What does this fold into?
Amino acid sequence: MTSSILQDATAGRAIIQPWTVDLYHRAVTEGWLEETTAFELLDGFIVRKDRARAGEDPMTIGDRHRLAVQRLVKLAPLFEPLGCTLQVQQPIQLPPTNEPEPDGSVIRGSDDDYRDGPPGASEVTCVIEVSDNSLARDLGVKLRMYARAGIEQYVVIDLVHDAVLDHGRPQGDEYLEVTTLRAGETAELRAGTQTLPVPVNRLIP
It folds into this structure.
């Protein structure tokens, strides 16, 4: 049924009404949509997160993905002296139809600055995704989404190829600069107007 509706929409025979950020929050607040960390809003669709190992059940969480996220957690204190905060698996708002929950996002200021809602694109200087089974999504719909929002830096920790993909200079729905970093090299994570050097070995378990 779903495949048929999507095909009809592609052919112009049906219209799919996307979820907006406001509608998404209203649905959770009024209790007709469960608030859960298992899903995120991407291009107007409520999508289950994929943290599995490549080729395995997407309902599971891969061990390397889990360890990579734990490594991000340990980096968080290093951003505070730079006037920024490293969020881990927390939402950022990219209206009208996106509210992703990236594995990591560097935001300006402190947690207390966002009591009234998640940070938006202008407050986010770097987004980090840990990619295994989700690599195609992270280099596809999510890359385009972050670029369109003008996120300055998009870093993909590619567990499939043991590399860190550093994307910069967003333009339209792409990044004009892409650098592939491997063990022994250093990633420069944007933190406001500064950068934090982090060895690739500290990002890839």
About this structure: The chain has a mean pLDDT of 91. The chain has six helices and ten strands. The radius of gyration is 17 Å. The helical segments are 2-10, 21-29, 63-75, 135-138, 141-149, 200-203.
